[in-house]
Amino acid sequence: MDDLKLISDEGLAKLRMQLLTALTHVTVFTPGSLQEEWTKCGKLNCHCASAGDSGHGPLYSVVRYVDGKTRKQRLPAELVDKVRQRIGAWNDFQAICARLADVNAEESRRLILGSDGARFPWVGNQWNQTGSDASRFSRRAGRGWREGDRIALGGRDIRI
Questions:
Q1: Mean pLDDT for each 10-residue chunk of the chain (160 residues)?
Q2: N or C: which end of the chain has fewer CB within 10 A?
Q3: Does an H or E element contain 148, and which?
Q4: pLDDT for residue 110
Q5: Strand order through the sheet with 33-39
Q6: Can you tell me the distance from the alpha carbon of 137 to that of 145, in angstroms, rounded to the nearest whole number?
Q7: d(CA 48, CA 60)
Q8: Among 2, 3, 4, 18, which Cα is nearest to 107's?
Q9: 62 burial level (CB within 10 Å; 0-12, 13-18, 19+)
């Protein structure tokens, strides 16, 4: 995200449009990852029982997290290449979304700090308040906001 600090406001807007356009091209994907397994059946006369044999396989599965639990779905061998492409598209989708989130965080940082780099003009005695946030705000009220401070903005912590 540090590289975004070097881009102008117009450059950020252009980057946002490029990312949104790229996002429209990633429409078919499979969330998760592809797992390849080799198993041993446990029969004494089977080839997999000999030392150094990798066992039976490969067996493929799509693995993903659903509601905090790992879910695994077996995959027929003929679908492996197609699902591998769809999982690659999922990874692209995640990368585009992460970069878009970084662009939004940088724009928010600039909004808060001002385009000329000025710090919060409203910081002063009005931040000396009581309550659960008193220590957080009164600590900053005396010195103002500085580079490196973290704030929560839109459910995401950003560093200014």
A1: 80 91 90 92 90 89 94 94 93 92 88 62 42 44 52 53
A2: N
A3: none
A4: 84
A5: 33-39, 56-66, 69-75
A6: 10
A7: 18
A8: 4
A9: buried
The whole-angstrom separation of Cα 155 and Cα 61 is 34
CA nearest neighbour of 38 among 28, 23, 48: 48
The Cα angle at residue 25 between residues 23 and 26, in degrees rounded to 5: 70
Distance of CA 94 to the CA centre of its chain: 6
Between helix 80-113 and helix 9-25 the angle, nearest 10°, is 160
- Chain centroid to Cα 8, Å, comes to 24
Residue 66's pLDDT is 92
